[in-house]
Amino acid sequence: MEQEKIGKFIMQLRKERNLTQKELAEKIGVTDRAISKWENGRGMPELSLIKPLCDELDISVNELLSGERIAKDEYQEKLEENILNTIAYANEKAEREHRVCMYIIIVGLLVIFIAMGIGGWMMYDRWVFPEATPIKQISMERIESIHVSDHEENEIIINETELELMIAYINNAEPTRYWSVNDYPRVRPYYEFEIAIKGEERELRYFIYEEDGAVYVEMLYNGVWEVDKGAIYILEQ
Question: Which residues are 193's β-sheet partners?
Answer without folding.
Answer: 148, 206
